[in-house]
Write a structure and sequence with these properties.
2,3-Dihydroxybiphenyl 1,2-Dioxygenase, domain 1; eight-stranded mixed β-sheet; 8 strands; alpha+beta; globular
């Protein structure tokens, strides 16, 4: 199964503070901006496209959100790399057959309809990797 780079998630303290860099310096286009208040997510998201690449700026909505904890532990910066797959359930099964472990509680459909799950960083040498699929494609 093909895994195509979908986006890079970047943890920031304030989207409004960093957005001008992505729009004015990198000539990005703000495609979407939304908030997810789902427990265990709790994040403001700005989706910026530069040519054919997508960056998601992730700002915590409260001090206990996963992004807030990430910033406290590791600082601002790259939070995760996401790969798009055609069939998320099949990709999960194939990865598990190869010994890959997932953060099972992260399996969900986000507010924009993207199904996703994160791979346990223990299986990726420390990098948080998201697998995602777009059921409406």
């Amino acid at each position: 199964m093909d895994h195509v780079l979908d986006h890079v998630g970047i943890a920031v303290r304030s989207i409004d503070d960093v957005l001008p860099f992505y729009l004015n310096v990198l000539n990005g286009l703000l495609e979407d901006r939304y908030t997810s208040d789902a427990p265990g997510v709790e994040v403001h998201v700005a989706v910026v496209r530069t040519n054919d690449k997508v960056i998601e700026l992730l700002e915590p909505t409260n001090k206990n959100s996963p992004i807030a904890r990430f910033i406290k532990q590791r600082g601002k910066g790259v939070h995760h790399i996401a790969y798009r797959v055609e069939d998320l359930d099949k990709a999960i099964l194939e990865a598990k057959e190869k010994g890959i472990r997932f953060l099972e509680d992260t399996l969900r459909t986000n507010t924009r309809g993207r199904r996703l799950i994160y791979i346990n960083p223990a299986s990726t040498a420390g990098t948080l990797v998201e697998l995602c699929g777009y059921p409406n494609d």
